[in-house]
Amino acid sequence: MESYTRYERARIIGARALQISMGAPVLVKTPKTEPLEIALEEYDQDMIPITVKRK
What we know:
Elements: H1 6-21, H2 35-44
């Protein structure tokens, strides 16, 4: 997993939680129902399909 700053991590997880809340498919098997908790679990398992471009 790439090393992200805490700001990048927050942005990635927040964006993914928004996607999940809008109906995007969940990429991990989990009993959780809260979009933020699901996004955190996806992040921990390195499953979030979001990349960061740096200059």
